[in-house]
Amino acid sequence: MAKPSKAIEKEPVDMVHQNAFLMETIRKEQQHQKLYTEFKINPFKKLHVIPDKPTARKTQEEDEADPAFQDIIRKALSEPSKKYTRPMTEAQEIGWIYTPLIVSDRSDRRLNFPRQTCEITKYMEAAWSLKEQSGKL
User: Fold this and answer.
1) Residue 43: per-residue pLDDT
2) pTM above 0.85?
3) Do 78 and 46 contact (CB within 8 A), yes or no?
4) From residue 90, how far is each of 79, 93, 94, 116 by CA, in Å?
5) CA-derived radius of gyration, the chain
6) 94 in helix, strand or coil?
7) Cα 47 to Cα 22, 25, 43, 44, 74, distances in angstroms
8) Is the dihedral of CA 101, 107, 111, 114 positive or negative?
């Protein structure tokens, strides 16, 4: 059988080495960080507006917003057929042209089947509404 190897004893880490390790880690993090100074709201994401307190008074400056920003938000929230001239995806192609190809005539009995009721349907509808009102569902 093989003899077990001797356990390597670790020296306790002193404060100087610990501080050097921390400084090296911070220096590497700062090399790869990028500082952002301009912030913009994503126009493609829905905003959740929190209203002001009812007792707070607004000034005239707060009521006026940037018209260019409002235009960007309005365009982002509009439907795809108003944003683009043609469909961007295959799923958009299905409902892109939503005008009917033929005008439907409601008086034509060949294509129009309005809802009709008979005596049995009227009886069961009355029975069902009584059952709902009594709460025996």
Assistant:
1) 80
2) no
3) no
4) 16, 5, 7, 39
5) 35
6) helix
7) 40, 38, 9, 9, 12
8) positive
The widest CA-to-CA distance across the chain, in whole angstroms, is: 100
What are the angstrom distances between the C-alpha of 129 and each of 117, 119, 123? 16, 16, 10
Q: Which residue has the higher pLDDT, 36 or 68?
A: 68
CB 83 within 8 A of CB 75: yes
What are the pLDDT digits (tens) for 77-93?
Answer: 888 888 888 998 888 88
Which of 80, 118, 120, 116 is closest to 96 using CA atoms? 80
pLDDT above 70 (res 6): no
Per-residue b/e over 4-42, b at no fewer than 16 CB within 10 Å? eeeeeeeeeeeeeeeeeeeeeeeeeeeeeeeeeeeeeee
Cα–Cα distance for residue pair 38/47, rounded to 1 Å? 19
Q: Tell me if residue 18 falls in helix, strand or coil.
A: helix
DSSP assignment string, 67-84:
HHHHHHHHHHHS-HHHH-
Is 110 strand, coil or helix?
coil
